Amino acid sequence: MTQLASADKKKRATKAKPAAMKSLEVEGHEPTVGKVFTENPKMTMRNVNVYYDDKQAIHDVSIDIAKNEVIAMIGPSGCGKSTFLRSLNRMNDTVDICRVEGEICMDGENLYAPKLDVVELRARVGMVFQKPNPFPKSIYENVAYGPKIHGLADTRVDLDEIVENSLRKASLWEEVKERLHQAGTGLSGGQQQRLCIARAIAVSPEVILMDEPCSALDPIATAKIEELIEELSENFTIAIVTHSMQQAARVSHRTAYFHLGRLIEVNPTEQVFTMPQHQLTEAYITGRFG
Amino acid sequence: MSKMSFENHIMKQFDEELEEIRTRLMEMGGKVEQQLQNAVRAVSEADSALAELVIKEEKLVDEMEVDIDEACILIIARRQPAASDLRLVMMVTKAVNDLERIGDEAKKIANHAVMLAGESTTSEGYTEVRHMGKSVISMLNNALDAFARFDVDAAMRTLEEDKQIDLDYKTALRELVTYMMEDPRSISRVINILWVVRSLERIGDHAKNLCEQIVFVVKGKDIRHQ
User: Fold this and answer.
1) Residue A58 pairs with which residues in a beta bridge?
2) ipTM
3) Residue B43 is assigned to a structural domain of this protein
4) Which of B2, B7, B50 is the best substitution to test chain A (most A C-beta atoms within 10 A)?
5) Which residues on chain A are in Cβ contact (under 8 Å) with B82?
6) Residue B73 domain-assigned (yes or no)
7) B202/chain A closest Cα distance in angstroms
8) How many CB pairs lie under 8 A apart between chains A and B?
9) CATH value at residue B25
10) Which of A199, A257, A208 shows the shortest CA–CA distance to A30?
């Protein structure tokens, strides 16, 4: 009997040989799969192509970002997720060789319209970068700078209030209220990053773009930022580019997967991490190619 | 052939760990299947030595459950599996639980076999045990096969077998009640048989769970309670 059972086991083991993975190449102009469009979009992007000189970095990407949504953009290095994120507040304008085609709208307004004020746009669509980059000024000045140049505060009292509120929203107030006039650069990495978030919030943006906001931070600082993202999503729409899939899984409502400049899949985060629709997404989030 | 693949991770070690829990689950399945076969045979052939063996070896099944569960927890802690990997690990932790329960039922059957072997040698009720035992062993075998190949169609077919087992169980109950009414002296013996068919029916349910878990791994669809 034992022999029989073990022979049976062997039979099963050979049968269990899994089929080889299908080719991971992107085929032609395969459309994005999943829930790409939403009912209450804050931003709508249609057929966006981005070029650096003659090299195309983004191919025909269409997607909506809903109001008060946290959307995560993931994908291997060089897949275009940062390029795409930066085109949402015309950050790519600063790159001479960069050209953006297609339609990028916020509340139905074309962000690439010639007469649009780019400075004002960047107040409405704020950005937080990978490395904390506070101005070499005091903590107070870092946060007050934006409201000042955009004329959001008439009096010193107003400005103080904006600074305090922004620092509170960025969960930094309690840690820095006694030393507002010390240099922002003297804070720890995690605090600096929250200072940058406070700076972005201070001008009352509608959308906050985050480009790998935690990649230079330790796990505790990361957890604080993630907690913050959750809170901020009550008032803001957030798009976050991250290399940490676990972070995307933790903080986002929808996840967009980019691969070689194409948007492969957009779906509710819980679906992407348990039952992704596209094989490329599956391969990436299970760590099957780099 | 299924499309499931648990290979080609950038971390080769991860491939090995997933393969490991699969292999060990299959080993546990094989052991449980053997326990069940022996238990049923111990009843129908009144072989108390074989029954004692089943009772003794139940410990091995328990140990396998603990080991595999531990391996799964380690994978979750170390690798944070996602998508199909996550579904596989979750499935394995559930499947070992079902297999362990099947092992328990096999042990219960063996306990009754010991009691039955010590009593009179009439053969009333053995037909029912043999018949149900055969269907249940075959169902468990099919379920394990479906798992080995990640074969959803086979899992769905096997799942349906549980309905027939439930019917057989009801029929067996009626038969056993008749025996007891006809000859009240047989009551204590027939009650032992009754517990045996009850265990077999429960094993059918656990085998059904295994099939549902296979569908979950492959399709990502939860078909329980439908």
Assistant:
1) A50
2) 0.79
3) yes
4) B7
5) 245, 249, 273-274, 285-286
6) yes
7) 22
8) 85
9) 1.20.58.220
10) A257
CA distance B162 to A145: 71
Q: How confident is the model over A154-184, as pLDDT tens digits?
A: 899 999 999 999 999 899 999 999 999 999 9
Torsion angle in degrees (nearest 10) through CA of A103, A40, A256, A166:
100
Residue B224 in any domain: the answer is: no
Contact A13 B86 (CB under 8 A): no
Task: Give the residue numbers in A contacting B (CB under 8 Å), as ranges.
Answer: 1-2, 5-6, 8-9, 12-13, 15-16, 18-21, 245-246, 249, 273-276, 281-283, 285-290
Q: Which residue of A has its CA nearest to B31?
A: A5
**Alpha-helix runs per DSSP H in chain B:** 12-44, 48-79, 83-118, 126-149, 152-182, 187-219
Which residues are registered as beta bridge partners of A207? A125, A237
Range of the domain at B101: 3-219
Mean pLDDT value across residues B47-67: 96
pTM summary value: 0.83
3-class SS at B114?
helix
d(CA A170, CA A182): 18
Q: Is B226 inside a domain boundary?
A: no
CA distances from B70 to B18, B64, B96, B144 (A): 13, 10, 11, 21
Summary mean pLDDT of chain A:
89
CB contact under 8 A, B26 and A16: yes
Domain count, chain B: 1
Are the beta carbons of A20 and B6 separated by less than 8 Å?
no
CB of A192 within 8 A of CB of A185?
yes
